[in-house]
Amino acid sequence: MNPRQLIITVVILVAASLGMALYAWRMQKHALTTVPAAYSGSVAPPASGSTEQATLFVADDNSGELQPQQASIPLSEDRQQRAQELVRALLNIYLDKNSSHPIAPGSDVRDAYLVDPGVAVIDMNSAFADGHRSGILVEDLTVASLVETVAQNIPGILRVKILVNGQERDTLAGHADLSILYDVPSVNQMVGPSPSPSQ
Question: Any idea where the domains of the chain sit in the sequence?
Fold first, then answer.
């Protein structure tokens, strides 16, 4: 390669590097301006759907157990939307300032998918996982409460998968395994007997 070709190659590489740096800077600036500030209040309930009685399985850090709690919440007829609404109602309890199992502000469910046969996929936002307290018990209680709440209120759910921002994650906050499908009967054994939800 002669000196002239070498100079041209170096100039092209420097220009490409500067262009990529500028593009990355603009994307980062755009991302920072489009991410909402941390939300510290409760998640708003859904605007539509008839109000029904549901059994939410609420984690209690003091007892280390799930406590079934009856709630009257608006629920859609659509099973996927229903799963999302149930999880959101559970998160509202955890986001309350007097919660027995507090979670990070801004925690929310992004979506829920029901995959046949009998699999529910719950997609949580990053605030839920990134801000979750680390510890075997608190993480296991959170996962078990999500699994139980969805499975006990939507017939036919046998396994539950938890995603974060649409992606699989190794753990919730260092302990609870999010890389697996949670088997509902196994979670039932872990949390002990619970009453059936009201029909």
Answer: 50-191
